[in-house]
From TrEMBL:
Gene3D superfamilies noted in UniProt: YerB-like (3.50.90.10)
Pfam families according to UniProt: DUF3048 (PF11258), DUF3048_C (PF17479)
Start and end residues of each DUF3048 domain: 77-220, 248-357
Comp. bias (Basic and acidic residues): 35-51, 62-72
Name of the protein in question: Lipoprotein YerB
Region feature (Disordered): 28-83
Organism in which the protein naturally occurs: Thermohalobacter berrensis
Amino acid sequence: MQKRNILLILLIIPMVFSLIGCSKSEDTISNTDNLKSKGETKNELDEKKSDSEDENEQDLLNNKEDVPKKEGVPSPLSGLYGPEEKIKRRPVAVMIDNHPRARWQAGLSKAEIIYEFLVEGPYTRYMAMFLKNDPKHIGPVRSARPYFITTSLEYDAVYVHCGGSQQALSDIKKLRLADIDALASKADVFWRYYKTGKRAPNNLYTNIDVIRRTQKERRYRNKGEFEGLKFNEKDIQIDGIKANEVIIKYFPNNVTKYVYDEEQKVYKRYKDGKLHIDEYNNEEIIAKNIIIQEAKTRVIDNKGRLSIDLIGKGKGMYITNGKAIEITWEKDTKRSKTKYIDKNGNEIRLNPGVTWIQVTKANPNITIK
């Protein structure tokens, strides 16, 4: 009896497992049939999943916040982007007074390139280049000198000034500059701005709107025809000596200083120990790039007027992002571009932003630390 029961149990167990196996198989087939009825096989599901992942990845790429869209075109003066209709114009170069009685100046915070040159005595003067921005106040405006004219020519600029030395006025006529002289303009193009507390000749002002209007009235060509400086597409760190502070002593009582702001990655500018600001909007004057250009300088008359050799070759420094490298410069003709060359013989590319070009005597008194 016991043997019969054991035999029955042994026969029943395989049958149970067989039924369980059939049930699982039928469920699997049933589920597969359902998938087929929807037109989707396992391979098709895998493909659909892959497509979905690709779409999600593309959405993430399209929504990246660290890739800002640049609108317009880059300015040949700064590498910064602006509306094409503005960037394609001729730049405006304005002579700006830097006599102690003229400070502070208006409009420098909106310039893209600013030059500082020696003039008579222990003084310097600025030439500010405007293209992307149209400031409402610029000044004080001062007189022309031949070396400023030579510099403005390489930018094909509309040259704005108030009178000038005899040689400068001769050069303007001979070279047929597109010039706007306060002494030969309508009364509303320049004005004395007495609210500044300054006196003549240190209080003559203008703005870009009236300069552009006068340019049109005089039928000066509007489209710019010049090469411009070379710029990196994005901010680049150069391999050079430490340059967190740059001090240029034109004279003991005429000192230009730059101090690097590591957080903003720009240099703040000081003149004779005071932070340089724009008197119109109270913005600090800054520089992304600083170029020191050494040039042979000599006095040519009893009034202390200077001759500064800008055609030829010379030494210099390029400074940006807390670093400085030695460079050379070269310029072939009055209208040709000044090229700034690195130690490998390549024209340097500046970082996008405002550039101050400090033109000094040969072997200047400069400290970089």
